[in-house]
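User:
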Amino acid sequence: MQTIKKWIACAGVVVAACSQVEAAQPDTVTVDVGTAQLPQSWSYSECVEYAKANNIDLHQSRLTRESSGYDLEAAKGQWLPTFSFSTSHSLSKYPWPAGGNFTYNESNGTLNSVSKNTYNGSYGVTGGWTIFNGNQRRNNIKRSELQNDINDMLIEQASNNLETQILNYYLQILYAREAIVIAQQTLQVSEAQMKRGEELMNAGKMSRVDYVQLESQYQTDKYNVVTAESTYETNKMQLKQLLELGIDYDMQIDSITFGEEAILQPLPDKTEVYNTAIAWLPEVQQSALQQDMSELDIKIAKSGYMPTISLSGSVGTGSNSSSDYSFGNQMKHNFNEQIGVTLSIPIFDGKQTKTDVAKARVSKLNTILDYRSLLNNVAQTIETAYLDARNSQAQYASSKESVRSAELTDELTNEQFRLGLVNTLDLLSSHNTLLSARLQLLQAKYMALLNLKMLDYYQHKGITLP
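Assistant: Predicted structure:
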């Protein structure tokens, strides 16, 4: 009797604890999307900060982590006993009772009718607790803890990916904005050349065909301005989408000037960059944790070979309307208590456990291969960024000299054209050479900046723009 009372007391504690946990859980999950006033002009750091607070994919990663936290609580709950209350009620009808429809009362010599309907009721509290199940509960808790760590790494990885994506779009916007300036300057020159050609044509010193070529170049440069502006707006649109800004929002970004020291800075040793990267990158840590989890999966699968020991107990009572005793007496006399221990030893389960263990081992091999593949990808990415940065720096230095030479040539050609000493083809050739040199210099500049910042990222220095 004392054992049953302890079971009932435990049941009350568990029910109360579950009620408190359930009351503490919110009915809905709300996401704070940020209501702070938006800046008039966005810096790179402001873009990153706003995106981390409002990006939908990042919010979903955080909700996944929250959900895995509940899975861990559920895994820990497997150590607790289970209790349940049950009651059943039934009504039976016997149209033709075995003793007939009447009974004779010898004391007073009367006949009494027999009830054809019988009511049965039962009430019981049952409880159970698994004492041992092959360490499956312990391993499930460890697995849930690893899953939480992996989800933390996924949040960090999503945040880092967001930061690098913003860097890419931000530099593209800066590049496009400078490309617009180059296109507008080129358009001004071609417009002046066209007007000068018109003067020469009217003076009889230039043919109509040569003038049409100058006019065609002017229209081409005019279209180049439109194209550069369209590219600029497209890049802003992509950045707005990443920041979850509305379609009607007119986004402006800060003007940044990069000195040559930022573009031509010495490159770090790529081996050191790689060693630093694999020591902190969340995707690498996540892949390592996946290997630990796969080892736990093997242990969990092997628990199917182990015996299970469980403890059970119950208290119950019942009543029957056909009994001569009152309801209270029946509830008292039918009250019963039960406690027992069950040992279950697996003998043959149709190769289910053997199959689960084999699949878990295959999964572990896959995680090892995934880890090696990830390390190779990181190495390839770093080496590519290193080579692109080195090539872009060399191209930048070369393009600077090309621009100087092209500017001198274009200046001299324009002066000769003004005096009528060169033909239209020489003028257009000089014009296009200068435009190409300026665009190559601009492209080399931002390619070098992008790859240098990515090398800083892999060195865990953080990404900053002046």
